[in-house]
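Before relying on records like the one below, remember that each one covers exactly one chain. Contacts with other chains, cofactors or solvent are not represented anywhere in the record.
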Amino acid sequence: MASVTSLSASVHQRLASALSAALPEAVDADPLLRRSDRADFQANGILALAKKVKANPRELATQVVSQVVTGDVIKDIEVSGPGFLNVTISDRAIIENLAARYADTGRLGVPYADAPGTTVIDYAQPNVAKEMHVGHLRSAVIGDAMVQLLEFTGETVVRRHHIGDWGTQFGMLIQYLDEHPHELDHKESEVSGEEAMSNLDRLYKAARKLFDADEEFKTRARRRVVDLQAGDPHTLAMWQKFVDESKIYFFSVFEKLDMEIRDPDIVGESGYNDMLAETCRLLEESGVAVRSEGALCVFFDDVKGPDGNRVPLIVQKSDGGYGYAATDLSAIRDRVFNLKAQSLLYVVDARQSLHFKMVFETARRAGWLGDGVKAFQLAFGTVLGKDGKPFKTREGETVKLVDLLDEAVERATAVVREKAEKVGLTEQEIVENGQYVGIGAVKYADLSTSAVRDYKFDLDQMVSLNGDTSVYLQYAYARIQSILRKSGEARPVAHPELELAPAERALGLHLDQFGETILEVAASHEPHKLAAYLYQLASHLTAFYDQCLVLKADTPEQVENRLFLVDLTARTLHQGMALLGIRTPEKL
């Protein structure tokens, strides 16, 4: 079905046309629209335009009003104050537009982006042989939401999970296990992915401790890295075993997060090994990178250390080894030239911003970015504890992600169980809804905060039925489903001929903004704006319930129209939450 033009866009077009007629020399002037408490919309571009053309703003506004046709979409328009335009949209236009959205069951009238292309999203990047911790949460949750949003707007999305699966740590771990085989004391077939990873993590920490304390072991471990890079069969087999075991664990964690991670999308550091030498050669031959004290470096005038000297991006070390920059630059080459991407989106911790700034600038200088190919870092802040400090256990250890998710589900299940008898939930439904509410709470707390900001992880608040939480939104959806189940023979039907109450108008106008919100959020990479929209929608719904009877409305037509409004609200909540990766239970 064709997309539905929002009422705000229709009004915008009419005002622009009226302005062009009133002031032909300013035909390109486009009045800005914003929400107003005293009317449906308020045009605030007249003042700036009047100053530009040296006209009286109130007189110019009056001229614009004289050119506007009213009676269909626009019910009334008036000049306010020094030259504002207050626009009231007709009740009929609101319901007719919403009816068109309602008829489009798959997309709710949301348009596709004007020029969709191909975007590679680099997100959810755990490390092989290490347990995932709270620091891995934001990249996964934000990245998954951006995948859903961009795909919904028509973009072709290629997912990439750039896992840490190469480097010195593997020489260290393999060498340690060769020398301490008795420490691998489990039969792998008898343990879960989490238990196997816990064992690997323990072995890694023991290997790191020995590596830092014993120079001879450090030398042997570094030789083992050379063996790995050279493809020594025994070393490579052990490395592959670590990778495979780690993937099983990764899949189990992402399953808890209710996220789909596909094996072909996991392309770690090792996936670009064959490109590293060529990447360095291309950079050196083009003059983008130069040799400095034996290392291959890229310098930037605006990146300097405390001593005032320029700090380079080291692509190849003086001993011939490759750093993260060589891998990241090779990944860019692969994503641009092999995957044919127009956009590269990196969902990576804000603390790596300088690294990616230098990597992107290097790629631009080399000609790999530019000419329609752009790279962005969707930088995110830190997860904090209630005390405002980085989230740690009482012992000062980093919080394991699985422990955090399990606790969230446990807390949420207790909340669900409290209301289970009242809404008639079975034990299976209690367990399922506990999962949906707990994981939804964790995701929403992350996504409702601007990505670049830090946020406090407070499970008590996250699973609360009050305030800006996913539970509040899930409950709003479930409440609508309860009303629809009790509606008997009455069905949701749009009635454009009816006069709307103020709360109905407010709810309807907000529903009509869903499509514009989705496109804006996808284009700006700001999922928190969708979370804000959905919270406002649930708040409008609450005000509507307080002021408007649904099943006991005055007339059968009014019952049908209000059922139509709440059903469209439910569908919008369901679609919006799904784009954030959050489930909406039918009963709660």
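The longest helix spans residues 233-256.
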